[in-house]
Each structure stands twice: as C-alpha cells, then as structure tokens.
Specification:
By secondary structure, this protein is of the alpha/beta class. It has helices at residues 2-16, 21-25, 77-93, 112-123, 137-144, 148-166, 181-192, 212-218, 245-259, 278-290, and strands spanning 40-47, 52-59, 69-74, 100-106, 169-179, 199-203, 226-233, 263-270. The protein has one domain (36-290): 3-Layer(aba) Sandwich (Rossmann fold). Strands 1-2-4-3-5-6-7-8 form an 8-stranded mixed beta sheet, sandwiched between helices. The chain is globular and about 55 Å long.
Length: 300
C-alpha cells in the first residue's frame, strides 16, 4: 500500500509542476533491434542434398556442464524454437528436468506464406489423401511436391553430424520434437528408421496427412528401447473437422503398444485445449517426461 501511495504522490508532484513524466524520468528508447534468447546462437547451414539454406538456432544449457548432455532437435524452428529453448533452459537450469541443448531447424528470411509452403513440402512425404476436402488448394499443391524423405536425409546425414561436431551433445541422448506436420514427420522418421533418435516428442501429430503411418505402426519393431511422448488437446477436431486428430493419436498408441514392445509410449490429453493451445502444455510435459530430473546428489 505504501508503494502505491508513493507512486501516486510522485505522479501528482510531477504533473503539478508542469513537467511531463517522460521529460522528468525517462529517456528516449534506442533504435529497435532483433530480440535474442539468452545463451543461444544462430547461423545459416547449407544443405547440399536439398540445395537450400536453413536457419539453425541453438540454445545452450544455462549452467556449465562437465559432460556431454542430451539434445532436442525441434522442427518448425522459426515458430517453436523460442518456446522450447526457454522452457528447456528454465527446467534444466532449475533442476526440473535434465539439461539439454535445443536445436531449432527453420528457414532464413522468409515471408509467412513462403515459410508455410516450404514447411509443407519438407514435412510431408506426398499428396494428402483425396478423401480430405477441407484444406486450401495451396496446401494440397505444396503437399503434392512433399519431400519428407529428402528432408529427413538432410536432418540425419548433414545437420546432425555437424551439430555433434560443434557442440558437446551426447550421441545417444537425442530427441526429435515436432508439432502438427512436424510431429507427423517425426513419426515418419521413427517408423522408417527406428534408430535415428533415442526419443520422440509428438505434439498433435497430423496423421490424417499420411494415414498409412498407422499401418506402418502395426508392423514396427524398434531396434533398441526408446520413448515416445504424444500430446493432443481434447478439442483438436474443432479446428480440423476431417482431421480425426485425437482418435488417430489413440490408434497410433494402441498399435505401437501392441506391436512394439521396446517402445515406451505415453499419450496425454489436454482437457479443453485445441490444436494451438495444447502446444505449450505438450512441450512442457513432454520435456519433463523424456528428460526427467537427475537424481539428487547424496549427502553421505
């Protein structure tokens, strides 16, 4: 209460003296510059196989590490990197999860429309089924030229080796994370190359774009034990009338559990959340599930 009274009293004195609060206490703002995230850096990486440039953003753990740590590769880096990096640094820095590097994979200097077209082609593996009607023609056109297999090759054979040379990341503690189309691409990688990553974080996977992945899940066998975290909102299908987002997620989990004994798969439904609002909860819970806090050091 004293603080409030003090602030009001100061404002009254300034105004009664005929002074502008700005002229009395504030200075002009400097020229605007791009915002940055603590302990992070970015660079352009050229893919020889795809003959295109990618914007790569890397967030480091807040605390110095004495050994190599996990790494999370995040698809749709232009939009998802800031959130995942901030959460990971906070959780890892305060002991709510194990520490990890975060690598965002995005595109340099693109408009929103160009980004949408590029991500659609990179994250899909072919045209969407003819039965899907309620999607824009621009989406169908981009999907028809989908090259998910080529993008996955770039991710595994070009980007990942570079990251492992440049940063002290553990080669055997890697996570691939994606949302929507990104989650579908991550699922595609999982089912076609089970040893590519150690764990997977799939938020609201758009399986409707590649329904044959469900059949693939029925014959999937993991080369080694791995964990898969899947999150989706209970109101996903209010955004996607024909998407069947949540039923597809349940079907995927059932098939993986029935046919892939080496896979530890979990599905979390976020009550009242839709395709967009479920995302922060999915990232948060997924990180803490796949990267649990290290055991407390014994005092003895």
């Amino acid at each position: 209460m004293r603080l409030v009274v003090s602030v009001l009293y100061t404002a009254v004195v300034v105004l009664s003296a005929g002074l502008s609060p700005n002229s009395a206490f504030a200075q002009d703002a400097t020229d605007a510059k791009p915002a940055t995230i603590w302990y992070s850096e970015q660079f352009i990486f050229h893919s020889k196989s795809l003959e295109r440039d990618f914007l790569i953003q890397v967030a480091k753990p807040l605390k110095p590490q004495t050994s190599k740590v996990s790494v999370i590769y995040v698809l749709d880096g232009n939009s998802l990197f800031p959130a995942v990096a901030s959460m990971m640094q906070g959780y890892g820095g305060f002991g709510h999860s194990a520490p990890a590097y975060v690598v965002g994979i995005g595109y340099p200097d693109q408009t929103l429309e160009q980004w949408f077209s590029l991500r659609t082609r990179d994250l899909l593996s072919g045209p969407v089924p003819d039965s899907v009607k309620e999607v824009p023609d621009s989406f169908k056109a981009a999907a028809a030229s989908g090259n998910g297999a080529g993008f996955a090759k770039f991710l595994l054979q070009e980007l990942r080796p570079m990251i492992e040379r440049r940063y002290p990341v553990d080669l055997h503690q890697s996570i691939l994370a994606g949302h929507s189309l990104g989650a579908s691409l991550a699922l595609h990688v999982l089912l076609h190359d089970s040893g590519a990553f150690d764990d997977y974080l799939l938020c609201s996977p758009s399986i409707w774009t590649e329904p044959q992945l469900l059949d693939k899940a029925s014959t999937f066998h993991a080369a080694s034990p791995l964990k898969v975290f899947i999150g989706a909102g209970t109101k996903e299908d209010e955004d996607f009338v024909e998407g069947h987002m949540l039923p597809n997620a349940h079907e995927l989990v059932a098939r993986l559990r029935n046919h892939a004994s080496a896979v530890d798969v979990s599905l979390v439904e976020f009550e009242g959340k839709n395709h967009g609002t479920a995302l922060p909860d999915c990232i948060s819970q997924g990180i803490r599930t796949l990267l649990p806090s290290p055991p407390a050091a014994s005092s003895h």
